[in-house]
Each structure stands twice: as C-alpha cells, then as structure tokens.
Amino acid sequence: MEDTWTRVGQLRKWLDEEAAPAAAGDVRLLRVLKIGEEYGEVAEALHGALGANPRKGASHTWADVEKELSDVIVTAMVALATISPDAEKLLDDRLQHLVERVDEG
Length: 105
What we know:
It is a single chain. The protein has one domain. It starts with a helix and ends with a helix. Helices cover 80% and strands 0% of the residues. It has four helices and no strands. It is globular, with a radius of gyration of 17 Å. It is mainly α. It has helices at 2-18, 24-50, 62-83, 87-104. Helix 1 packs across helix 3 (62-83) and helix 2 (24-50) runs antiparallel to helix 3.
C-alpha cells in the first residue's frame, strides 16, 4: 500500500497545484463531492453493462465498471488525504476494525 499512498499523494499535490484556487474548506468539500460524481459514472457503466437502459442498450462493459469503481476508490483516497494528514493510518485502522467485526460476528 505504500506505493499506492505515494501515488495518491502525487495526485493530491497535482490537484492542489493545478485546480482553480479555492478556500481550504471548499477544497475539502469539492474533493468529497467528487466521490459522488465518480459514483454516478459507476452507475452509468453498470446500467450500460447490464443493458438496463432500453434507449442505450449494452453501452458499457464490465471492464468499464471495474475502471469506474477504481476511480471511486482513488477519488475517496485523495479526498481522505486532503482532509487528514494521517489518511493511510485512518484507512488501515478502519479496515482493521471492519475485519475484526466480521471475525467476531
């Protein structure tokens, strides 16, 4: 995961440098809201992979769904890294908590 978080840091740094200027609170808000936008793209790809929209038919593949899900994960990681300097530990601790709950169940 170390390489993953390094890459997330690179994306966050790029966004910090290249995105339109905004107040710090706005940056956090916009990065969290971006997760919703990416989720919408997953939903669109899923509908397309299932051919659920009669007007569009089978407009996407399962590979498209996988790509969009990956975008959601990366976007959430960038948002977490934006709002917390300890994002890697937070995610690791949360994942451990969830696994322990399942193991206890």
